[in-house]
Amino acid sequence: MQILECVPNFSEGRDPGFREELEVVLGRFPVKILDLSMDPDHNRADCTFIGSPEAVEECAAALAARAVELIDMRLHAGNHPRMGAVDVVPFVPIRGLTTADAVAIAHRFGKSFAERHGIPVFYYEDACTSEGRRNLADVRRGEYEGMAAKLQESVWTVDAGPQAFNERSGVTAVGARMPLIAFNVYLGTGDLAVAKAIAAAVRHSSGGLRGVKAMGIDVAERGLVQVSMNLVDYRRTPIHRAVELVRIEAARYGVPIKECELVGLVPLEAVSDAFGFYLQVPGLSAERVIEYHLLPGDEEATV
Amino acid sequence: MQILECVPNFSEGRDPGFREELEVVLGRFPVKILDLSMDPDHNRADCTFIGSPEAVEECAAALAARAVELIDMRLHAGNHPRMGAVDVVPFVPIRGLTTADAVAIAHRFGKSFAERHGIPVFYYEDACTSEGRRNLADVRRGEYEGMAAKLQESVWTVDAGPQAFNERSGVTAVGARMPLIAFNVYLGTGDLAVAKAIAAAVRHSSGGLRGVKAMGIDVAERGLVQVSMNLVDYRRTPIHRAVELVRIEAARYGVPIKECELVGLVPLEAVSDAFGFYLQVPGLSAERVIEYHLLPGDEEATV
């Protein structure tokens, strides 16, 4: 059995009617919605669904088409980097699929979407066509407002669609990647400088752990600050290593970890890895979890 | 979808031919084998399999019938308490089944097994007919050698089968219970007295945590001792609490935890609970694990 995940982000997070429109489209396909959240501050909708590769690809195309109809980027403002109505469409292999499978799906989806709607598309992460496009932040740098100029730079030849800027819909990034773990660590302080210093210590870009992105954020309504992290390769840099490094760096300021927050979902393997680490069980794998043996498509399964 | 587990223990752990016989029987039913291990020291075979309630019940009956044919308790010796050829047959509800369902299956299996083979049967754990039979250790006290006398005590009227001792096959305990977590903590010492003192501190029978059984064991081949634990209700007493209490009690002897060992399998909920504890994620549930949503019989699932 093959299971693919798709996590499209759309640049509309305030209109409840938009959420309903997405739900109507999702309801037309045999997919399962894992998360659908609207963030008014970011003015951004975040949708996570899984299913067979065919159903997920078709559903993603239908969602993207509806978003293109409904969103006018000329009117968009929000606190999250963005460059298009359909801002990013990452495909994630969950079961019975390789990264190469997900890349092939991303490329087919991207080409079809770009041609159907006349929107410039860049491929990113594992679907990237050059290393300079692997990191979404590089692709999106300049945001919607800077895209018209960016598309005139020779290094930013589109991967699919027109080389011309689409004023109404902007630019779309289509990618393939491993499941990403989004994890926020709340610190026992309101001092944003501490969160920023810790984030700088643990993130890869400034010398920290490979595969870790981190930033310090002020969470004013709780009077706390957080280190907001993305782990892009949880097999090489597991959650426990990132969190315990935050704990060590926080200790120099006399600051404890108040609590942590998992954003979205996490793969079983990441959970069983952390279990094995904290409980000191050498070589523990997801196969030691009873439910692992109930999953569809397990070769040995006869139930 | 309903999934039942059965974990029968048979009093033969040395003859490789016996293992093969079990495998032949298991192969005749649509069940999935999670574990099949022979322990020569205990002279005991331990088998774990899952499947539909019907398949598991039928397979358990066929395995038990074969074990009754092959094992003669008059010749049995081994380092584990035992009272019968088919020593214990616990049924464990895994998915879509209640404890009451598992109890009904245990009672039906026990009656049928007892009558077919003329073997006295006691029901234990959630299947028990009186509180004095809930604990397997109480039912099995006296072991095979003491059962003829035990069956003459009015308090030990059998739950099924003849009241007379079966010399060849002994006595069988049939039960229903929650998934049990068997967990061994290796200490950084060879001092058995330390392991025994820690076991006494954490186990319920001597004042410790509810639902925890523990004993100190010498693991001579590693030059270490271990606290061997069973957690019989991991929802009320989760793994992390038992292990961290061992760690605290060990500290007074200046002894660290070297490593831990999980025996058999563990429910997803127990793994996600430990993950939430160590990573300080309040209210984390198994639903935050991607694979949870791929399990069969999930009402919402459309994939």
Protein described:
- The structure is a homodimer of 303-residue chains.
- Chain A is an alpha+beta fold.
- Helix content of chain A is 32%, strand content 24%.
- Chain A has 8 helices and 11 strands.
- Chain A has helices spanning 16-26, 53-70, 99-117, 136-140, 143-150, 192-202, 239-251, 268-278; strands at 3-6, 9-10, 32-39, 44-51, 86-95, 121-125, 172-176, 181-187, 212-219, 224-231, 257-263.
- In chain A, the strands form 2 sheets. In chain A, strands 1, 2, 3, 4, 5, 6 and 7 form a 7-stranded mixed beta sheet that branches.
- In chain A, helix 6 (192-202) packs across helix 7 (239-251).
- Chain A is globular.
- Chain A starts with a strand and ends in a 25-residue tail after the last helix.
- At the A-B interface, helix 7, strand 11 and helix 8 of A face helix 7, strand 11 and helix 8 of B.
Based on the model shown, name its key terms.
303 residues, seven-stranded mixed beta sheet, homodimer, globular, alpha+beta, four-stranded antiparallel beta sheet
- Runs of chain A with pLDDT <50, length 5+? 299-303
Task: Specify the number of helices of chain A.
Answer: 8
**Biggest interface and its residues per chain?**
A-B, 49 and 49 residues
**Strand runs of chain A, count:** 11
Largest sheet of chain A: 7 strands, mixed
Instruction: Please give the share of residues in helix of chain A.
Output: 25-40%
Helix/strand class of chain A: alpha+beta
Q: What is the oligomer described by this structure?
A: homodimer
Strand content of chain A: 15-25%
Order of helices and strands of chain A: EEHEEHEHEHHEEHEEHEH
Sum up the overall morphology of chain A in one term: globular
State the distance separating the first and last CA atoms of chain A: 14 Å
Measured on Cα atoms, how large is the radius of gyration of chain A? Answer: 20 Å
